[in-house]
Amino acid sequence: MDLIERPPGTLVAHPGGSPANVAVALGRLGRSTSLLTQVGTDPYGQLLIEHFRDNGVRLAPGSLLDCPRTSVARTSLSPDGHAEYTFDIAWQAFAPPAVRQVEPDATCLHIGSIAAILEPGSLSIDALINTASRTATITYDPNCRPSLMGDRARVRRRVEGLVTISDIVKVSLDDLAWLYPGQQHSEVAMAWLERGARLVVVTLGADGAWGYTRHRATRVDAVAVEVIDTVGAGDAFMAGLLYACGEANLLGTDKRAELAAIDDAALIDVLQFASRIAAVTCGRRGADPPTLAELVAR
C-alpha cells in the first residue's frame, strides 16, 4: 500500500506495489492477468484484495493472504510531483508448489522491483522464472529502490543476472544512474542485449523513451501531460509495453525471434502506446492507470 503524503502532512492510502500495479493496469486494458503476491490480514490487505478483484486481477494459487501485516511504502512528493519512498516491507518465500507451475496458456511472466531483489522471497522468484521460461516471455523492470535494496554492487550483479534470463527489460534513467553512475544509457542497453535480452527499453521521463534491439535504436517523445504525481508511472508504461507487444503477437517463447527482429514501425507503435498509458497515470493521484475505453475516448 502506498501511503502518499498530502499537505499539511496527512497520509492517504493508495493501492501500490510495482508488479501489482502492472497487473492492475493490464487488467484495466482487458488482459487476462494473475498475480502471485503476499498481503496481510489487516485492513490494507483487504483493500488490496478488493482492488485486485475489482480490476480483473486473479490471485495466483499459492499467494500468501494471511501475513501478519501488509507491506507499505510511505511516499513523499516533490513540488514537481516526483515520488520518494520509505518502506516497511516483508517478503517471504513461497511454498514450492506456487512456483513450480504456471497457467498453461500464459504468454508472459513479469517480475520486478523489490520482489526480485529482497530475500527470501526473491529466491522463489528464481524458481518461478525457471518454470515459466519454458512457455512464456520473461519481462523485468529493475525499478530500483536504493534505500531498501542495499549494496549497489550486489544489486547490480543481481539485476544483471535477471537481465540475462529476461526477454524484455524496461528500466528508467534514474535506475541506470544509480546502478551505473556516469554511463550512457545506450551503453548499458547494448551490454544488456549482449547478455541475452531481446528488447531493452529506457524511459527518460519528460524526454521520452528509447527502445533498443541488436538491430536498431528507436526513440519516441513523451506524451504531454500536467503531472499530478509520478507514482506508478513506470509500472503503467510497463503494462502498456506488454499489452502492445501482445497485440503485435510478440509474446510467448515461440515469438522470441520475432521480438528480437521487431522493425522500427512496430517498435515505435509499442513505445508510443506505453507512453500514452504512463502519461494518463501521471495526470492522476497515485497508481491509477486508464482503462482501454478511456484511452479510446481520449
Task: Provide a quick synopsis of the model.
This protein is an alpha/beta fold and 298 residues long. It has 13 helices and 14 strands.
Ordered list of secondary-structure elements with their pairings:
Layout: E1 2-6, E2 10-14, H1 18-28, E3 33-35, E4 38-40, H2 43-54, E5 57-59, E6 64-67, E7 72-77, E8 83-88, H3 96-99, E9 108-112, H4 113-117, H5 121-132, E10 137-141, H6 146-149, H7 152-164, E11 168-172, H8 173-179, H9 185-195, E12 199-203, E13 209-212, E14 217-220, H10 233-247, H11 256-260, H12 264-282, H13 292-297
Parallel strand pairs: 1-7, 3-5, 4-6, 9-10, 10-11, 11-12
Antiparallel strand pairs: 1-2, 7-8, 12-13, 13-14
Can you tell me about this structure?
The chain is of the alpha/beta class. It has one domain (18-35, 92-297): Ribokinase (UDP-N-acetylmuramoyl-L-alanine:D-glutamate ligase), CATH 3.40.1190.20. It has 13 helices and 14 strands. The protein has helices spanning 18-28, 43-54, 96-99, 113-117, 121-132, 146-149, 152-164, 173-179, 185-195, 233-247, 256-260, 264-282, 292-297; strands at residues 2-6, 10-14, 33-35, 38-40, 57-59, 64-67, 72-77, 83-88, 108-112, 137-141, 168-172, 199-203, 209-212, 217-220. α1 crosses α10.
Characteristic terms for this protein:
42% helix, six-stranded mixed β-sheet, alpha/beta, four-stranded mixed β-sheet, 298 residues, 13 helices
- The largest sheet has its strands arranged as 9-10-11-12-13-14
* Parts with pLDDT < 50 across at least 5 consecutive residues: none
Tally of strands: 14
Q: Helical amount among residues, as a percent range?
A: 40-55%
- Secondary-structure element sequence? EEHEEHEEEEHEHHEHHEHHEEEHHHH
The major pleated sheet works out as: 6 strands, mixed
Shape: globular
Overall structural domain count: 1
From the 3D structure, determine the CATH topology.
UDP-N-acetylmuramoyl-L-alanine:D-glutamate ligase
- Per CATH, the architecture is 3-Layer(aba) Sandwich
Number of helices: 13
Mean pLDDT: 93
Based on CA atoms alone, the radius of gyration comes out at 18 Å
* Termini gap: 29 Å
Strand percentage lies at: 15-25%
Supply the CATH class. Alpha Beta
| Superfamily (CATH H level) name | Ribokinase
Structural class: alpha/beta
